[in-house]
Amino acid sequence: MSKKLFGTTGVRKLYGTQFTLDMALNLGKAVGTYLGSGTVLMARDARTTGRMVEDALSAGILSTGVNVVRIGLVPTPTLAFMTRELGYDTGLMVTASHNPPEYTGIKFWGKDTMGFTPDMEARVEEIYENKEFKVAEWDVLGHESQVDDAVEKHIAALLNNCDVDLIKSKEFRVVVDPGNGAGCVLTPYLMQRLGCKVVTINSQPDGHFPGRKSEPDAESLGDLSSMMKQTGADIGIAHDGDSDRVVFVTNDGKVIRGDRTIALLAKEALKKGSKKDIVTTVDSSKILDEIVEKSGGTTTRTPVGDIQVAIKVRELDAILGGEACGVFIFPEFQFAPEPFLTICRILEMIAKSMRTFENLISEVPAYPLLKAKLKVGSGKKEPVMKALTEELPKALGEVVEVLTVDGLGISLKEGWVLVRPSGTEPVIRITCEAPSEEIVSGILEDARKAVEQVIKTV
Ligand code: MG
Predict the structure, then answer these.
(1) What distance in angstroms lies between residue 406's CA and the mean position of ligand 1's atoms?
(2) Which of 6, 25, 94, 166 has the most Cβ atoms closer than 10 angstroms to its Cβ?
(3) For ligand 1, a single-atom ion, which residues have Cβ within 5 Å?
(4) Other CB atoms closer than 10 Å to residue 379's CB: what's the count?
(5) Contacts of 401 (CB under 8 A, 6+ apart)
(6) Prediction pTM value
(7) How far is the CA of 9 from the centre of ligand 1 (A)?
């Protein structure tokens, strides 16, 4: 069946128009019906609608006879981690991740720290659509309770999994920008426990996101960049709204794309063990493949979305997974994104190398990358994409390989282009990368013309 409720990662909608409390209540009933028994662990990020949506969702679950345990305002990775830690079947995170403040949503986690697979989501959606809800009698309703030490448990596990003494010995100076999101309750405290001198900005949870846009990128991290230049700190750390992403900023204020950070981590990880597989999404830089290959590893590409990466990491028994937007998965710790362990690993690398972060990351060159998005009428995305499978390679020339893992990816003799319909907006997105500015501009121009032409004619 076609999924109306679920997108790339769980449910994410505009509060009030696309998503109402009635929907949250029924979704709770659908999840409870799907599970049949047991306990759901529940948390939320800092959004103004969070508590209310969580209450409605909980009421729905309790009405089916399934229990609810709440752990309050915590990062998404803490919810996934605690679901396994406490031995529950399902974790629900009320969050719209990095979307603007007017959005709300829910991310679904299983007992093994994996997100719900598309099949599991489809089953919940089917129950939701058909309203086949289980109704528990008054004397067998679920009961609700609260656990208060989730963040402390998560921090303790992180400290157990990194070289605390080594990091402490360096007395790093870090600037943390959680963007008024859920990371406010964890990252500054983890840094203190690692002996860092911590300066924070945007570090009080606030669902209006007063400090900056929730998505951490070069455009939104201007304040963090200037703080880095002013303070001369060792590293800048930024999160999105539910803190499942981390983006790093160098001592001189440069915002580093996640795929370069994956390459840096991969190089280090490939030195250690016998595992050779690195998993990333179709939109990561080719520099990642080049560095992984030089380090004796293999890169596998998946469709975008952290769950797609996690599924492939598990399937291949890979050593590391990640997305260019700042998602990192360490399967030895959990299958949910682990921005906090990423920070620990990067600090270990800096400490061991006796070099600066900027100096370390300079080993992973940045190829110029350009993006564009073109408006497309509703219902036209599919025919446009279909027509492009023929038209786009013709418009580009010197095609080496055509990939259809997610959207249409075309490797060229120099550079590549990826054309994807957006999962959330009425647009087609174009991403291009090439070794020089001149080449990448040319590729974008050719691709844009081809897509415009197809949108006009389809
Ligand atoms: Mg997120």
Answers:
(1) 20
(2) 94
(3) 97, 240, 242, 244
(4) 8
(5) 410, 411
(6) 0.93
(7) 9
